[in-house]
Amino acid sequence: MAVSVSLVVLLLVLAVVFMRSGGLKVTHAVVCALLGFSLAGTNMAPTIQNGMAATAEVVSSLRP
Fold first, then answer.
1. Could you tell me the superkingdom of the organism this chain comes from (predicted)?
2. Among 34, 35, 29, residue whose Cα is nearest residue 14
3. What would the pLDDT profile of 4-54 be if each residue is shown by its tens digit?
4. Is the pTM of the predicted complex or chain greater than 0.85?
5. For labeling, which of 1, 4, 10, 60 is most exposed (least CB within 10 Å)?
6. Which of helix, strand or coil describes residue 63?
């Protein structure tokens, strides 16, 4: 749960930064959000969740 919440916050911050810099239009952000909601309702959702969890695990195991 903590990984998904922090990932959502990170993506939200990136979206706001991109919108403020002019690199991301509001319509693009809406389309991306709708795509995310659509993917969440498909059979691919568990696969995407497992991939994100595995990636987070790999990143957290890296030591600088």
1. Bacteria
2. 29
3. 667 677 777 888 888 788 877 888 888 788 778 877 888 888 888 898 889
4. no
5. 1
6. coil
